[in-house]
Amino acid sequence: MATREADDMSSISASVAKRTKLTQVACDKCRSRKSKCDGSRPVCGKCIQFSTKCVYIAEAGETRGQSIHRANRELQEQLDSYKALFEHLRSGSTDVRVDILAQLTANEPPEEILRRFNKNYQLPVHENATARSSRQQGKHRATDAFEEGGIADGVPALAHAGQEITSTATEDLPQESQVFATSHLNPQAQAAKAELLQRFSCARVAGISDDTQRQLPTGAVHRFGNLPLSSAVQANHYPMDVQVQQMLNLQTHEYAIPSCIWSDNTPMSNLFFSFRDGARKMIANGTPAHVVIGHAPQFDVELFFRDRNDQDPPHNADSWACEVLKSVSDFDIFVLLASCALYTAYMRWNILPTAELYALMPPMIRPTRHQRCLPHAMPLDLVPHPVIREALLGQYRDWLSPGTLHSGATSVGWPYSIESAVSVDSLTGRRVLTNAFIEHATNPDNWSLDKSIRDMYPEIDEDLGFRIRH
Fold it and tell me: Residues 6 or more apart from 249 whose CB is under 8 A from it?
């Protein structure tokens, strides 16, 4: 009797133990199916039965909670690596940024990039109080300049037009960045960097070249060639990151590509930037755009013929152009009226660079490809004819100063009277340019110069599209 009871208790205990045996970690498929997993590795019994891929999120010997903590720790380490890379991209020199970007493009892991980075660049342990104070003053100066002068004051530093500009751009960077800017990679790192840059550029170009059916989107334009970047000979004097971008196809909507202008502190530059930046602030503060840019496509020239009074509307692009040009003497009046239309259209687009205003801007005053790529003084953009602007980009000379002999010999060839060029608007009672004059004056083929222009601009040739009067 006692023996039978003992056997029954033993079988019950074994049955309970068999039922309560739990698998420590189930595979993903069994968890999703909510089925019993035997925990066998590398493939559990259920996955063998259903011929499915068996995946465990936990390593052998780990609990599910431990595996989650491990995954979170790995993600945090990866996040810290990306944060460190972004910080170096934000504050590093041109050489540092190109080095990191090239390796990222080559699919190098962030941890490996940081390891190589810390090996090739020596990080400063601390900065003294004097350097920190100087850096803070530099930040305040840069902030004040941006608030007062708008975008124009910062353009030279962004343009990388020469060594002086490059040094100015790095002057206010943190001390860490200045150390990076003056550091040099060892020969092995330089070779690796050149190889990565070559792979980066060539792979991008090859991808473009292989797609024979590739078409540009509507309104987009090519701005640079697609030659691979040479690792031996620099194509121009710009920093490496600029060259990499230039060697790739820059494709964007043409109306959104600004002219690469900067202020040369001349009266014309000051007039342009102060009005443009003030107009942008007015629009940002809620002023309707038409109040600032005028009633496009109409060109109001009322203030070209008289001074402003209290009954005139607020300052806008039309009045700005008129008040600038009516002070110019010894110019043909039709050239000045034509310039009013060109200046107004150009200012409207600079204030509000939309596709509509770009389409309304006469093609002859639109920035050329060189104007969009080469840093230059702002007054150059107001030269009416693109051929002259191209000549000035190569060698900057006086053109816009009032009384300049050669520019005073400009003609638009308008054969009719002033009454045919200017009419009175029936709604506003203000003088505006007629459509016939606008069409004639904004056609570059109607512009001409006296032969004396060759003394100052010997490179100008009639074959380039500019007519010379003999």
Answer: 208, 222, 223, 224, 226
